[in-house]
Amino acid sequence: MKRYDKAFKEEAVRLSDEIGPKKAAEQLGVAYYTLQEWRKRRTLHGDGAHIGSGHAYAPADKTAREIELEKEIGELRRANEILKDALGFFAKDRKR
Asked: So which domain of life are we looking at (predicted)?
């Protein structure tokens, strides 16, 4: 399955608004139904649509800063778990 970045999707949707989805899909080499799905997402999610491949949509009430902070919290929690595991490993080694 081919993946497209956010900028491409946004431009494709804009073009489809101007010349129609069928013509835009043909010009861009994108399946008509794929372009229609992007248009639907724009309607449902507004500015949060087309965030890129493999990412979940953010609720509309969350700001970009809140999303960034939640991501950072997740990364810090993972790092903390790694450090806890390492501490346990080295503590066992010292007891010998």
From this structure: Bacteria
Q: Round the average pLDDT of the chain to a whole number and report it.
A: 82
Residue-wise pLDDT for 25-46, tens only, equals 999 999 999 999 999 888 887 7
The DSSP symbol for 56 reads P
Distance CA 60, CA 47 (A): 9
Q: Which helix (H) or strand (E) holds 10?
A: helix 6-19
pLDDT of residue 7: 85
